[in-house]
Amino acid sequence: MPKQSPFALALSLCLLSACSVQEAKQAVQVNAPTTQNTNSNNQSNTTQTNTGSGTQVNNNGSGSSNTNTGTQTNNTNSGSGNQTSNTNTGSGNQTNTTVNNTQTGNGTIIQPVNTGDGSQTNTIVTGNQNNTTNNVNGNQTVVNGTQTNNTTTVNNQTTIINQIVQQVFAIPSQSSNIPKTIPADNNPNSPQNGGTTSFNQTLTEQKVTQSVLNWPAVSGATKYTIFSNNQVLQETTATTVTIPVTNLNQKIAVVASNSTATPSTPSTNEEKTLAESFLPTTLTGKVFDGNGSPLSGATIQVGSQNPEKTFQTTATTGVDGSYTINNVPTGLLVSLRATKQGFATRELLKLIEHNPQNTATINKFDFGNTSPDHPLALTNKPEVIAVSPAPNSTVDPRTAFVLKFSQPMNRQSVQDTFAIRSFSNRKLSVDLGSANSFTLTGLMNLADFSGTQIWDKSTYNIYWNMDDTEVTFSPTEEKSLPTDREPSRAPEYQMAFKSFGGSGNRTLQTAAGVSRSSHHFQLSGTAYEESNKFSVNPDTLAPQLSSLQVETAENGGLNGDAIRVRFSERMIHYTYDATIAGGMENTAGSATKAPAAYPGGSVATGTATACNYQIRVDRAGSEIMNTSWCNLPGGLSGRALYDTDDPTHKSVLLLPPNGADLYKPGDTILLTVATTVMDPAGNTLSPSQATASANAS
């Protein structure tokens, strides 16, 4: 509530109790600027000249046989008239207003009271007074009127402001009564507040870090000193400053002074905290559904995010989808959460702005608009509202994917359409020998699904929560996403809902049967996406030869005298579109990189890759064979093939020529693998871990 001036308050009480203006004057002391009147003689007569249409009342001199050398005209105007060119040159008592210019309009001068010695008090003007120069040695109070372009003089000189303590955001444009303490009132419609203020903030970690203070210029002031918690923070000649803010309880005051004055520290009640500096304001907005229609019955929850100021409230949208929340503290960072049963939940973080002009667009927060499927609309269509890994994150190649939906889902619709695709072109290190081909392709567009197809539901164990709003796709045994030894070559992927194969099904359904066939991801709160992009970490570990299993024909080995070679990691990826392993470039020399025959390759064949394995056989302490697997006794060549019975894809089978008798049960087999052999990331075999031994069984 705006504060009244002391005299206006006293007068209001007198009017209620029928007291005189003189009594009102005695009820309060008003300190106003003064002027010195020029008095040349005593005024002795009581007869004044009235040449206008008004009435002159109670003009009495206080002495006898005094001479008035001046002329006084129309001192008291009780009607609708003009009062002009009045000069008082006597030293007696004057009971009306003396002005040098013009007073216009239906103004009334009510009961002027003279206290003697040329002092005039409690003159009340109820109309408009323009271009007025006050030359009275007393106080003048203006009530219910507008006073403009006023100049107050003391001894014919402009009054100098020594100091005005101004509370933040509450500096009036009129400062005729100085020095003064400005009331803590931000209401721009208050007569005490002639100026407006602006307020802006920047945010870091949901805390206010800067505040812009703006106040009207104070007449006569040549500098402004900003105090914070009773310490000088800044001195400026401007009326707009940006100050650092530690928290909303920081106290601020502004002192206006002239260049020669030393500003004194404001008292406690003259400072204000930022949290106290703003009037409560109003939040408004509308909520729309996914079809662009207003949504009634939605709940809006508002909560402060500033630890220094707690605030919580709720509202419900009406039939037109609108909501209004009053008395919200300004300067707060708040969360606005819109919910309705059966619809997606939306949430915003917004800073509540100072809005002294009640601008309709300030602090107006809509959820959606008339555009169908607007990102902030509350829709009952299915959508992914949270994922792990998070968008644009970098993850382990064996990561699991967790998706949270806005609605309980039809499980089959999710599982049948789930897919992982390549997002960008990547030539992996295992394919560097090829000049033109790309191992993985993609157009780096979340809306494009032409990238290499990697995994679908067949690669994962799938788990749902109890209400079918969250699903986890966990890779089956040792399944992992292809990656590379070089970080710059590590692939980028996208998770999407579009089934592999010819159908390209993209339709998700809620448990209630509501469908969505595009823009499945709503993760940012500001836009829908067709897929979720992520990257994988590089693989820099060299593979190792971990174990051997030696079979013999004599003991019924399924493959005769064969050797099962076990590596420390998977040595081949069978993705939906591409097979990734050493030797895949299918150019000269590629066989030396392959642990086994590259499927469909004409260079890295089974017999060519068998040369990467050196075998030595000891029997009863004596060496009976030492040769490569591709140059066995009798000039025969064995083969190296991936063991398709191993779901981890860590095993290679060394198969002998048909009917070859290479060793007997109990023989000791020592196997060494060429260090040029590489894993799917392009890491070559560790030299210190390239040999293993076992006894034939």
Folded structure, characterized:
By secondary structure, the protein is mainly beta. Helices cover 4% and strands 31% of the residues. Strands 13, 17, 18, 20 and 21 form a 5-stranded antiparallel sheet that branches. It has a 5-stranded mixed sheet with strand order 29-40-37-31-34. The longest helix has 12 residues, at 6-17.
Notable traits:
697 residues; mainly beta; five-stranded antiparallel β-sheet; 50 strands; disordered N terminus
- Look at the helices and sheets and give the structural class: mainly beta
What portion of residues belong to β-strands?
25-35%
Name the poorly predicted regions.
1-162, 166-208
Please tally the β strands and state the result: 50
Work out the helicity level. Answer: under 10%
User: Counting H and I runs of at least 4 residues, what is the number of helices?
Assistant: 4
- Profile the largest sheet: 5 strands, antiparallel
Radius of gyration: 46 Å
* Global mean pLDDT: 74
Note the gap between the termini. 99 Å
Tell me the overall shape.
elongated
Q: What would you say about this model in short?
A:
This protein is mainly beta and 697 residues long. The protein has four helices and 50 strands.
Describe how the helices and strands are arranged.
Layout: H1 6-17, H2 21-27, E1 83-84, E2 102-103, E3 109-110, E4 113-116, E5 119-121, E6 123-125, E7 129-130, E8 133-134, E9 140-142, E10 147-148, E11 151-154, E12 157-158, E13 164-167, E14 203-204, E15 207-208, E16 210-214, E17 223-228, E18 231-236, E19 240-244, E20 251-257, E21 272-273, E22 281-286, E23 299-304, E24 312-316, E25 322-328, E26 333-339, E27 346-351, E28 384-388, E29 394-395, E30 401-405, H3 411-417, E31 418-422, E32 424-426, E33 440-443, E34 453-456, E35 460-464, E36 470-475, E37 492-497, E38 508-509, E39 515-516, E40 531-536, E41 545-550, E42 563-567, E43 572-574, E44 579-581, H4 606-609, E45 613-619, E46 622-628, E47 639-642, E48 651-655, E49 668-673, E50 691-695
Parallel strand pairs: 6-9, 7-10, 8-11, 29-40
Antiparallel strand pairs: 1-2, 3-6, 4-5, 11-12, 13-20, 14-15, 16-19, 17-18, 17-20, 20-21, 22-25, 23-24, 23-26, 26-27, 28-30, 30-36, 31-34, 31-37, 32-33, 35-36, 37-40, 38-39, 41-42, 42-48, 43-44, 45-46, 45-49, 47-48, 49-50
